[in-house]
Amino acid sequence: MTPNNLSQKLYPAFREGIIILAVALFIAIIFTLLRFNNMPLFGFSSAALVKEQQAKILSITLSEAYDLYAKNKVIFIDARDPFSFEEGHIASAINIYPEDASLHASSLKIKADQGFIFVTYCDGPQCPLSKETAYALIQRGITTVKVLVNGWSIWLKAGYPVSKGKK
Questions:
Q1: DSSP state string for 146-157
Q2: What is the pLDDT of residues 20-32, one digit of tens each?
Q3: Smaller CB count within 10 Å for the chain: N or C?
């Protein structure tokens, strides 16, 4: 069998495969668009996921956070990267990046049982790290978590106690 002869036999099968794939894709798109529950086209909606996560997380004001700090009833969790944490953080805060929440869950559960509130923060009003860390902790059974939006900046601006270094 010559190469030219082989390509003449494979071309119709290849063409039919492409046509079948195109028709299946067209049917899938039409079916998805007609669904009543507005299911996303490609499996999940990141916007819906973020909205669901944020709905479960409470925020806290600066004055409420400082009041808890003054009463020694809070553990601040700095969700920023370790370098930013070492450059400056809320006094007595610990540094937990969202992906590391599971490493700290058991020790934080002990503190939760002792009545502590956990306040996550990062820097900037749009910074997602504090919410991601809070959500990761909630998923691990720590429910007394709140988010101080733009926490580092507003805490620093208020002149409240800060520290530098790893602790």
A1: EEETTHHHHHHH
A2: 988 988 887 776 6
A3: N
Q: Which class does domain 49-163 fall in?
A: alpha beta
Contact between residue 142 and residue 108 where contact means Cβ atoms under 8 Å apart = yes
Q: Considering just the CA atoms, what is the radius of gyration of the chain in Å?
A: 26
What number of other Cβ atoms are within 10 A of residue 160's Cβ? 15
User: Where do the CATH 3.40.250.10 domains begin and end in the chain?
Assistant: 49-163
Would you say 83 and 68 are in contact if contact means Cβ atoms under 8 Å apart? no
In Å, what is the CA distance from 12 to each residue of 7, 9, 20, 23, 26? 9, 7, 12, 16, 21
Question: Would the pTM count as exceeding 0.70?
Answer: no
Task: Tell me which residue of 92, 67, 68, 66 sits closest to 78, measured CA to CA.
Answer: 92
